[in-house]
């Protein structure tokens, strides 16, 4: 499995037109430039059709936005781990608020990812779900209250008790899982707040993927952890 250095900045490209096709490649290259310049760990998660082109254009870790459980051969329309490996992926998001999964499917996907050497980030929306996810032993859990996603209002500053309380509860069931903070993260101050609350990285999307000056935004995010 790829070794993701912590703290990490994970950038979800979602399906934004500014981060689609060749623009996804360009944005990933910007992320790689800042990662190298600041010596920080940056992971990118482009759309599934863009995974191959992005993974062959940059050396930083490329993640899928989703992965289904299942075996190769008969799962039409599903995204299988073996395909992600062939596309050059290092890992995958699971259970994003915009692509929810059943608990049993999350567990099956994590076990498949383990077998294939893929890093897993399970997105969760509250402390109880975060604890349940952590008990499944993924590589990381990303705490993201859905009401703050895309708002520019950082959970690490607007609802800090969610992060600190969730970190405490997760550590009761899993001392090793990486804990990321998501929803509304957009500045270096947000990153610093998340780390001060016990998170080991952040997961964000629009602040970078929709920006007219993504390099400047990325540098601001990286500054507190360089």
Q: If you had to describe this structure to a student in words, what would you say it looks like?
A:
The chain is globular and about 45 Å long. The longest helix is centred in the N-terminal third of the chain and has 17 residues, at about 20-40. The two termini are about 25 Å apart. It has about 230 residues and is of the alpha/beta class. Strands 2-1-8-7-6-5-4-3 form an eight-stranded parallel beta sheet. It has one domain (about 10-225): Aldolase class I (TIM Barrel). Helix 4 links the parallel strand 4 (about 90-95) and strand 5 (about 120-125). Helix 5 (about 125-135) runs parallel beside helix 7 (about 160-175) and helix 8 packs parallel to helix 10 (about 215-220). It contains ten helices and eight strands. About 50% of the residues are buried.
* Distance, first to last CA: 24 Å
Cross-sheet strand order for the largest sheet? 2-1-8-7-6-5-4-3
Q: How many helices?
A: 10
Shape: globular
CATH-defined topology: TIM Barrel
Major β-sheet profile: 8 strands, parallel
**Backbone CA Rg:** 16 Å
Q: Could you report the average pLDDT, rounded to the nearest whole number?
A: 93
Order of helices and strands: EHEHEHEHEHEHHEHEHH
**Total discrete domains:** 1
Relative helix content:
40-55%
CATH class: Alpha Beta
CATH H level: which superfamily? Aldolase class I
Poorly predicted residue ranges: none
The counted number of beta strands is 8
Keywords:
TIM Barrel, 41% helix, globular
Layout of secondary structure:
Blueprint lengths: L7 E5 L9 H17 L2 E5 L5 H5 L7 E2 L16 H7 L3 E4 L8 H14 L2 E6 L2 H9 L4 E4 L11 H4 L1 H14 L4 E5 L5 H9 L4 E4 L1 H4 L4 H9 L4
Parallel strand pairs: 1-2, 1-8, 3-4, 4-5, 5-6, 6-7, 7-8
